[in-house]
Structures are given as structure tokens and as C-alpha cells.
Amino acid sequence: MAALLWLVSDSLKLIQLLRWLQLDSSSEAGPTSGLWGEVTTRVRRMLRDRERKGQEYKTRLQDFLSALQVSPNGVMMLDGESHIEWCNQTSATHFGLDVQRDLDQAIGNLVRDPGFTAYLSRGEYQKSLTMTGRESTPSRPVTLSVQIHPYGRGRKLLLSRDVTTLEQAE
Q: Is this structure's pTM higher than 0.85?
């Protein structure tokens, strides 16, 4: 009889633990005593640690993106189909893009320079491409050096820099 009571009590605590995990494991509910209480405490601690680490990763990512944002060079991340995943303001200025509006757009549809289009489609990125910047005018020419670096699963990092002063010095 005692074994049956223990089994029923243990089963109820297990059901309570499972409900807590399924519904809202962030609350303080769940079994609080015995073996199942210990399991609940350890799961709660693991979830708290995971949440803390997730916040740390988000903070690091934001710090990294902030550092890229202040770079004097243009930085753009493209997916496997050359759609813009992210770019800094310098890159947007170089190519005449609106950072918000042009996210997820194909870079080849936005940058109409024939040399750039050929460079992008050729897929041979060992050398950089020199091209006219979007804000270039006859009175104020802008020359960009652009290079693509493949990484990850088909993704591309597009770096651009204003080389107008170097070009004029030559």
C-alpha cells in the first residue's frame, strides 16, 4: 500500500513537472520538494543560464554591428542569392541604398553598374573591382574599390571603400 501511495505521489509530481515544462517554465511553479523538486530547480537554473547567455550573445552581436556601423569602409552581408542581409551606412551611401527599404533586395537589381553586375555574376572575387560611386558627379567624382569575400554557406561579404583620393593622386 505504501508503495502504491509513493507511486501515485511520484506520478503526480512528475505530471506537475511536465505541465510546468510544457506551459511556462519561467514561473516559479513546478514540484518544490524531493527528487522532482531538485530536477525542477536544476532545469530552472539551466533555463536561467541559457537566457543569460542568449542575452550576452545578443549584446556581443549588437556591439559587433555597432563597430561595423562606424567603419569608414562599406560593409554589406549578402545571402546565397546575393540579397542584402545587412549593411552599414557607409555601404548604403556608396551604393545609393536605403538601409531599411533595400534589405532583402537583390544587390544586382539595385546596383546597375555593368562592371559590378559582371563581377557579381562571374563569381571570381580574387581581385577587387574599381567602379564609380552612386553619388559621383562631374564636379565631385567618387571612385569605389569593391571586393566580395565568400564565406559560410554561400554567403558573401561585400566590402567597399572610397578610393577617390588615391585615384586622383595617380
A: no
**Could you tell me the residue range of the domain that residue 117 belongs to?**
72-169
Rounded Cα distance between 43 and 24, Å, is: 12
Cα three-residue angle 90-96-100, rounded to 5 degrees = 75
Distance CA 167, CA 133 (A): 13
Contact 110, 117 (CB under 8 A): no
Residues whose CB is less than 8 angstroms from the CB of residue 170 and which lie 6 or more positions away in sequence, other chains included:
none
**What is the number of domains present in the chain?**
2
The span from the CA of 96 to the CA of 110, in Å, is: 9
- Kindly report, residue by residue over 16-42, the tens digit of the pLDDT: 777 877 776 566 666 666 777 788 788
Residue 11 has, within 13 A of its CA and on its CB side, a CA count of 6
- CATH code where residue 97 lies: 3.30.450.20
Same domain for 136 and 89, yes or no, is: yes
Sign for the CA dihedral angle at 117, 118, 120, 125 comes to negative
Place of cell 553586375: 117
134 torsion bin: left (phi>0), alpha (psi -120 to 50), beta (else)? alpha
What is the DSSP secondary structure assignment for residue 39, as one 8-state letter?
A: H
State whether residue 2 is helix, strand or coil: helix
